[in-house]
Amino acid sequence: MPETRTGALKRLFPDEPGFRQAQLEKAVFDDGPNGWNEVTTLPQPIRDRLGKEVPWLSYDEDSTVFMESGDGDSFKAALELGDGSCIETVLMANRRGQWTACLSTQVGCAMRCAFCATGKLGLKRSLTSDEIVDQLRFWRRFLLKRDRNERVSNIVLMGMGEPLANYDNVKTALNLILGNTDIGSTRITVSTVGIIPQLNRILDDPEWPPVRLAVSLHSADLKTRKELMPTTYDRFLDDLTEWGQRYRQKFGNRRHHVTFEYLLLKGLNDTPDHAAKLVALSQEIGQVKVNLIPYNATDSGFTGSDENRIEEFAAVLRQAGIDVTRRRSLGRDIAAACGQLAGPRKG
Fold this sequence. Notes:
The chain starts with a helix and ends in a 21-residue tail after the last strand. The protein has helices spanning 5-12, 19-28, 44-53, 129-145, 167-180, 196-203, 222-228, 236-251, 272-285, 307-319, and strands spanning 65-68, 74-80, 86-93, 99-102, 106-108, 123-126, 152-157, 188-192, 212-216, 258-263, 288-293, 323-326. Strands 1-2-3-4-7-8-9-10-11-12 form a 10-stranded mixed β-sheet. It has a two-stranded antiparallel sheet with strand order 5-6. Strand 10, helix 9 and strand 11 (288-293) form a beta-alpha-beta unit. By secondary structure, it is of the alpha/beta class. Helix 9 packs parallel to helix 10.
């Protein structure tokens, strides 16, 4: 795995005081400098050495592939990393009148979810904390160049990869972002397929930041979920329920609730019976929010539910007192929507 900037600082300057790391981290998030030599908070010898040996950005600006949706409400960038790997990151307009950055956490993904284009790539490697952070830096630089009063106000870790399979680097990246930007913890959401050991680890980890968590559930029926998400095991729903109850007891409040992401697929998980099972699971955990997601076409062969069925499904949940929202689908025309990220297309 590539060396991080702070790792390089410690290696190159082992005798420097600890506050140099904080200076370096702050400089990385400063929109002013365009390279180490412009970081005036660091002594010139350190700037010179970093400039020779440590990239200012973890991606190659000249190799970036950039796309804009037809209606201008979303953008996608394919970033080539130092080892030639490629990741995709997305910027989306949000309801706050600002922008949400969707960040990737791995090159590819090992979860193999049947509806997701990224899963077909397999896992190449996990990203470093710098490579996660630098996706945010990319979009901040992009907005700055537009010369408008715009900012990234929200972050979702819903891009390529499974965040909790890269736990330590994701945690480091989140803490760097929270410590060096004006983005608050409740404006950041980490989406996971539901790796129970890692979810339990969060409950006991004092260094895990108080960001929001969203579990990609997609079915409360065990057989159906196994078909959609091969990582599902026989006790998954029982273990998820136990974790959800513990999470609610420890963190539960108006802003920290368990969120289930639910992709609606025609004739597969959108029936009244599936809605009833989702209600039962949600009520057993308590204080659950369900985010219904429209299917974004990939080559998986699935078909999204029609509008009437989506409304009927949502109505069952609302009648049971479940908090239901519907995700807007942005960037479909540039393959930037949920489940569509798979790297730049060749040819």
